């Protein structure tokens, strides 16, 4: 199997952290690509008609894509139990919340990087940050008992989302007013899987 990836993508990082936690990182090669919404890498396009990463090519079937699909596939293959049946809907909901943080964060980065300055819309950027801030606040207020429980995919997703906020928009200070989540992330981010996948 081969993972088509960019190390700066939080969606890619989710997959890579799972690979580390499941002990299968050495079973999957990585193909780094440089791709954006305006300039799609041909390798990404060949694996995913939308050109988005990550995508996972396989020898025993067609390429699969979308980080949630890849994570479910690899978790099932490795039997790592990161989507436990006993709390599956909570895991999926929290993973979706983390993915929404990532999506809004990437949208903010693209607005600043890909659009000419005279066409950038500050109101739209702030609306994206509003989504992020609300999601982070809800995780801090409602989900800490879950995050402090046994490791599952939602922990990985939330950590990768928060890591992306630190990586791309540290000046936005997501920690303010979210002390419990801040403390949790300070510990979780020290896991070997997180350290091994930290973007430069």
Helix count, DSSP H or I runs of 4 or more residues: 9
Terminal Cα span: 25 Å
The parts where pLDDT drops under 50 for at least 5 residues are none
Strand order of the main beta sheet, please?
A: 2-1-3-4
Shape: globular
- The total strand number stands at 4
Taking the sheet with the most strands, its summary is: 4 strands, mixed
Mean pLDDT: 95
Overall number of domains = 2
Domain GST N-terminal: 1-82
GO cellular component, one term: cytoplasm
Keywords: Transferase
Pfam family, one: GST_C_2
How would you portray this structure in words?
With about 200 residues, this protein is α+β, with helices and mostly antiparallel strands. The chain has helices at about 10-20, 40-45, 65-80, 90-115, 120-140, 145, 155-170, 180-190, 190-195, and strands spanning about 1-5, 30, 55, 65. It folds into two domains: about 1-80, Glutaredoxin (3-Layer(aba) Sandwich), CATH 3.40.30.10; about 85-195, Glutathione S-transferase Yfyf (Class Pi), Chain A, domain 2 (Up-down Bundle), CATH 1.20.1050.10. The chain contains nine helices and four strands. Helix 4 runs antiparallel to helix 5 (about 120-140). It is globular and about 45 Å long. This is Glutathione S-transferase. One of its GO terms (cellular component) is cytoplasm. Pfam families: GST_C_2, GST_N_2. One of its GO terms (molecular function) is transferase activity.
């Amino acid at each position: 199997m081969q993972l088509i990836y960019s190390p700066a993508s939080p969606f890619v990082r989710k997959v890579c952290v799972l690979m580390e936690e499941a002990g299968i990182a050495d079973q999957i090669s990585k193909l780094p690509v440089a791709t954006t919404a305006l300039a799609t890498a041909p390798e990404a396009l060949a694996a995913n008609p939308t050109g988005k990463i990550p995508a996972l090519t396989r020898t025993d079937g067609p390429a699969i894509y979308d980080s949630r699909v890849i994570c479910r596939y690899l978790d099932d293959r490795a039997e790592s139990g990161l989507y436990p049946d006993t709390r599956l809907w909570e895991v999926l909901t929290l993973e979706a919340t983390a993915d929404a943080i990532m999506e809004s964060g990437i949208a903010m980065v693209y607005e600043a990087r890909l659009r000419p300055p005279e066409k950038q819309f500050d109101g739209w950027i702030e609306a994206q940050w509003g989504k992020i801030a609300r999601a982070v606040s809800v995780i801090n207020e409602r989900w800490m008992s879950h995050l402090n429980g046994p490791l599952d995919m939602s922990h990985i997703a939330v950590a990768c989302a928060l890591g992306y906020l630190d990586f791309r928009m540290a000046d936005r200070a997501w920690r303010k007013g979210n002390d419990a989540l801040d403390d949790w992330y300070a510990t979780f981010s020290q896991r070997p899987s997180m350290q091994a996948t930290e973007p430069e």
